[in-house]
Amino acid sequence: MKSFTAISGGIIPLGRSNVDTDQIIPKQFLKLIQRTGFGEFLFHDWRHEPDGSMRPGFILDDPAYKDSKILVTGSNFGCGSSREHAVWALCDYGFEVIVASSFADIFFSNCIKNGLLPARVGKEDALTLMQKKEARVDLISQTITAESHTIPFEIDPQAKKILLEGLDDIARTLNLEEKITRFERDSKTPSIL
Question: What is the pLDDT of residue 81?
Answer without folding.
Answer: 87
